[in-house]
Amino acid sequence: MSGHSKWHSIKHKKAKEDAKRGNIFGKLSKSITVAAREGGSGDPDNNFGLSNAIAKAKEYNMPWENIDKAIKRGAGEIEGEKFETIMYEGYGPGGTAIMVEAMTENRNRTASDVRNIFSKSNGNLGETGCVGWLFERKGIILVEKSTIKEEEAFMLNVIDSGAEDIQEENDFYEITANPADFMNLRKNLEKNNVEIKSSEITYVPKTTVEVSKKDAQKVLKLINLLDDSDDIQNVYSNVELSDEILEEVE
């Protein structure tokens, strides 16, 4: 997961800028609606996926009115589009693996859009399962080092709360957890007044691929084009990005 936290931080910063323009709220609403419907409950205390979706929406200061409407839409209390979650898999420049998580009410439109983005970005959309085996589902929490006053107590709390790993990456602690332990870990951190920079359950590459600067720029272009699509919720890649490339992006 080398460089994961720095790349995640840049994605988080970009999403914050999108949130200022309201561009990200549509995606967050979809996530909440789908979680409420698929989890069978509009109560976040009894719906892990919904609780996580709401927490992410709050990270981006999404108004509660928007969150509440999305929950009611998913619970069937008000009418709305019926979204479904679809995973696409493919290959990016330099032999990198790309996974795309979409939420859409029009499967054919989204598949066409994703295929076109891959094609014009020197990538190839593949079959289901072609690269999924290169990733694993993990909960990732980022905490800024500067906010931790007692490092030893923080570390012990994280370990006791079920974390699998803690890595120091530049200005952050990157905490990794099994998805089943993720909510308990986050709640314990919040209870101990630990300021969480970002948290999510994501796909993490088991191994990464180093590419040239030119290919890295092409991969980032592909990721950004996918991420800018209204139907795309998340994009995951196993590309290894150097500090130099990441600094240019930031």
Please describe what this structure looks like.
- There is one protein chain.
- The chain is α+β, with helices and mostly antiparallel strands and 250 residues long.
- The protein has three domains: 4-74, Arc Repressor Mutant, subunit A (Orthogonal Bundle), CATH 1.10.10; 84-133 and 206-249, YebC, transcriptional regulation domain (Alpha-Beta Plaits, 2-Layer Sandwich), CATH 3.30.70; 134-204, Alpha-Beta Plaits (2-Layer Sandwich), CATH 3.30.70.
- 45% of the residues lie in helices and 25% in strands.
- The chain has nine helices and ten strands.
- It has helices at 4-20, 25-38, 48-59, 64-74, 107-120, 151-160, 179-191, 213-227, 243-249; strands at residues 84-92, 96-104, 124-125, 135-144, 163-169, 172-177, 196-205, 209-210, 232-237, 239-240.
- The protein has a four-stranded antiparallel beta sheet. A four-stranded antiparallel beta sheet has the order 5-6-4-7, sandwiched between helices.
- Helix 2 (25-38) runs antiparallel to helix 3 (48-59) and helix 2 (25-38) runs parallel beside helix 4.
- The longest helix is centred in the N-terminal third of the chain and has 17 residues, at 4-20.
- It is globular, with a radius of gyration of 18 Å.
- 35% of the residues are buried.
- The mean pLDDT is 86.
